[in-house]
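Exercise 3.2. Students should predict the tertiary structure of the chain below and write it as structure tokens, then compare their answer with the key that follows.

Predict this chain's 3D structure.
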Amino acid sequence: MEKIAEKAKKGRSLLEKIFELVPGYGGYHDKERRRSADKILREFLAKRLERTKKVILKLCGGLTDKGEIGLLKLLGRQMKKIEKIADKLRFANYGYTGLFALTKIDAKILDKLYEFDYSLISQIHNIEQELDQISKTKEIDKQGEVFTNTIEKLESALDEREKIIRKFEEEV
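Answer key:
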């Protein structure tokens, strides 16, 4: 995480460097940079989830061709959950509401949200691995349950993210 934030900071233009000499602008701009990095990361995660939907559709086609329709309902429900999670990621609160807004989340909270979002990468990777296992396993029901649990963990993580933001907003 630190590497991404540092790269963004090093990529500043001369104009940005000049503006950082203006009192108050540097802190504002750092928050905006964090906010932008947070949005880019969440959009990346949402796109990965969109790819898993395509994998599920392909998997459903393969299962149908083999006559193994027992898992189709479960995969369909999980695909809808994945769509919902991707939308939550895409449209989630950025954690910073702008320069003149009443509620501003400080840099520490932004960093915590950024780290939290970054940890979602491993959870999405787990979903991708579970899909791969479903396509290879003979124990489809058991693997389907594991897949469901993995998606529910990701849903819970996103709910926790919202709680962090709401808790901060209540304190302000």
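Discussion points: The chain has one domain: 2-171. The mean pLDDT is 76.
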